[in-house]
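User: I would dearly like some help making sense of a protein record. This is the protein in question:
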Amino acid sequence: MTRTIVNLVTPVVMRETEEVLSTYSDHPYQQAFANPDLRQELIAYVLSRAPGSYVVLDENNQLRLERFSCFAAHFSRQTGNSGMDSSGNSSDF
């Protein structure tokens, strides 16, 4: 059975980056970040400063990942919770 380690924060950061950039004016922000290399650098910058949240999935759990990622994004947006408590430990949703 194949298992995969998945970072749950990556899709949230990518989605939020798209959402935030869409609110900025066309010049210079949207023009600059239309470049895929710069956009990847921005996403990597944010990911390097965000707490990670990982799961190990087997082939049977792949479908549940998308639902969990959407729930985690919604929960963190509504509560301001990054998935970490004040001591830096992962908190359960």
